[in-house]
Amino acid sequence: MSKPSCSLCLFWHSSIGKKIIVAVTGAILAAFLLGHLSGNLLMYVGAEAFNDYAKFLHSMLHGAGVWIARIVLLTCLGLHVAATICLVKANKAAKGQTYENQQTNVASGSSRIMIWSGFTILAFVIFHILHYTTRSTSDKLKQLGDAGDAYQMVIEGFKSFPVSLFYIIAISLLCSHLSHGVASIFQTLGLRTRKNAAFINALAKGYTAIIWLGFISIPLAVLFGIIK
Fold first, then answer.
1. CB 80, CB 26: distance < 8 Å
2. Where are the domains of the chain?
3. Burial letters for 140-160: b for 16+ Cβ neighbours within 10 Å, e otherwise?
4. The pTM is what?
5. Segment 175-212, tens digit of pLDDT
6. Distances (CA, A) of 60 to 22, 56, 63, 147, 151
7. Which distant-in-sequence residues (6+ apart) come within 8 Å of 20 by Cβ?
8. Domain 14-223, what architecture?
9. Distance of alpha carbon 72 from the chain centroid
10. I want to staple 17 with a disulfide (CB 3.0 to 4.6 A). Which of 3, 11, 146, 214 is the partner?
11. Are 92 and 107 in contact (CB under 8 A)?
């Protein structure tokens, strides 16, 4: 086995290595969410603006850009979930050991809650891809997507109350995950100190509030006829 491969294996099998992977992939996914929300909010501007945005995404790097982004994001999500599962298992195994302090127990409890919300979010991501990317859940969505009318495709998708409800629940769970995760990113990467802890906590809560309100506003606006 080559030295780089050995180094990567050692990094993965170490606790700090997994924590760094969770932090870095979490930061990438958090940045993506903010960018994705910025684009989605163009639904309030109108059909032309949103459809132009959708066309831009699919034309980046002659169509390769969107696939590169998808591969990077799915890889980050897979690593994030896998590393989190491993850390939760390690925390469980170490729970009864004498060197574990109260702070670690609290962190372990938070992680256990996060892992279940993570599985729900993963299920939502799969559904979201089938719903709006491959459009395999509805012939009408497929027709609108093929016609390049992303604006009406979003409206058609959120006209379904069960779909909008699932979306709102998933986003709420995601934000529950984010409220702990964003602050943890700074701590894991050594960027959190006693002096800036309050600011980082406020930043995490503010970011989470923006993501939650922004994303759930769109299906609600469709259901109440604000976006039509």
1. yes
2. 14-223
3. ebeebbeeebbbbbbbbbbeb
4. 0.82
5. 888 888 899 999 999 888 889 999 999 999 999 999 99
6. 28, 6, 5, 19, 19
7. 188, 189
8. Up-down Bundle (1.20)
9. 13
10. 11
11. no
